[in-house]
Design a protein that fits this description.
Blueprint lengths: L1 H13 L2 H8 L1 H4 L10 H27 L5 H20 L25 H23 L1
Helix pairs in contact: 1-4, 1-5, 1-6, 2-4, 4-5, 5-6
Length: 140
């Protein structure tokens, strides 16, 4: 289960990336927290989302590394905590009026494999978590 544990830890650390991308990196922060077109309530929810990624990542890391021995049920709790940010990002476009890009940034943002960077990252990280669970279940 050791390899699976570090895969989940890797994904959990990526939960801190929302703060970095949405609040610090100039190119992406101007599309989010520092976007003058966003009303205050949209920025409120962006702050909520950034903090959710940090809290969920911290919970996952704490469960993975603070409990001895790391049992399968605890591993699955950590995996669930690490997944929340990414699973909710994958599902967010199901709500009406949502989009991966704001219209003013649609042309300037890259589309690796025809996807938005957030979309691609979410799919990859969810896939890694599935691999981690399969490994943990098969290797014990």
């Amino acid at each position: 289960m050791e390899i699976a544990k570090y895969i989940v830890a890797f994904v959990a650390i990526y939960g801190f990336g929302g703060l970095i991308a949405d609040g610090i990196v100039p190119f992406t922060a101007r599309q989010h927290l520092y976007n003058p077109a966003w009303p205050p309530h949209a920025k409120f929810h962006n702050g909520q989302t950034m903090l959710m990624g940090i809290v969920n990542g911290t919970i996952a890391l704490a469960v993975l590394f603070a409990f001895r021995p790391l049992t399968l049920p605890l591993f699955l709790v950590a995996t669930a905590a690490a997944s929340v940010y990414w699973v909710t990002m994958v599902l967010a476009p199901l709500f009406p009026g949502t989009a991966w890009f704001d219209p003013e940034f649609a042309d300037s943002s890259g589309r690796p494999l025809g996807l938005s960077p957030q979309q691609l990252l979410s799919y990859l990280l969810c896939g890694l978590l599935i691999v981690a669970v399969v490994l943990a279940l098969s290797l014990g």
